[in-house]
Amino acid sequence: MIRLAILTLLLTFIFSSCKDDDTGGETTTPAEEVYYPDNSGDWETLSTDSIGWRSDKLQELYNLLENNDTRAFIVLVNGRIAVEQYFGKDIVNLGDFKPTSRWYWASAGKTLTSFATVKAKEEGFLDFEDKTSDYLGEGWTSLTKEQEDKITVWNQLTMTSGLDDGVDNNFNTSPEKLIYKADAGQRWAYHNAPYTLLDTVLESATGLFFEQYFNAKIKDKIGMDGSWSWLRDNHIFFSTARSMARFGHLILNNAKWQNEQLLDSALVREMTTQSQELNEAYGYLWWLNGKDSYMLPETQVKFNGMLLPDAPYDAFAGLGANGQYLCVVPSKKMVVIRMGDNPDDALVPALFLNDIWKNLNEVIP
Q1: Minimal CB count within 10 Å: which of 6, 214, 304, 322?
Q2: Whole-structure pTM over 0.85, yes or no?
């Protein structure tokens, strides 16, 4: 009996050891392991059936996307592609839109600038409490020196500069268009011009062109394609949907890419959590779900409830004009990407992203 008990214990130990990986943890399924695509162009996929999703509900989702002028749609689960669909035409290269087709990020690209700015802080090039005029020089606005000196890099990151977003062109960064509305930090308003000037702040702080710094710290590190272009007063990033997905996967994993930590994880959390009291649903140029209220562009109304009531509570997103979406969901280890033409007339069209989540909820158990 003693020998039998010992043999049973020994077999149990051996069986348990076989289940453990070389780090001492339990082995995981492909859907649970974090995967990073290399730069070869190959990308591992998961079948929706293998992860328990309702594949029979996908067509309803695809119909919604196609009927609302979507060009690209991707869902990652722990880095692997679970859903990837393309619709419509590639207006640049003609032919059908496909994985190699590029599209603009619009204001979803603010998340890239946010990362670059936070990285510059980590590297000691700037501090968020620094006056913006330290980098742009005095007189970058039409404010008095006392008013202007209250505007910091943090105010630019959080949309709290106090500058008037109601001017006839709030994308224009000329001093005559940057006029006083309130003291910095006392008013939240979705104002593109102060955000756009973060490019110049970074150039002044780092001594590099903005795109040089961005490429070195983000794009080249994770194998993104794409480039920045000036469209009138807007600095817009263009890339494939897969490159947007790469960046989303980087953020999902707290800025770790393969074996390299590109930004301290605490700074990633700071970037993607509530940044100020005025608009609960706004971080450092990221939109946040799961808050009791939210504000939207072009209004000072505070709306009750979550920004995306049908999305997971912990979702956060880069949102761009005409429905450019980079949505990260830590609880589901998911990244959701949508690129395309305008689904509605909102400057930041969160409504259609919520519609996408209504359909995704039918697909995902």
Answers
A1: 304
A2: yes
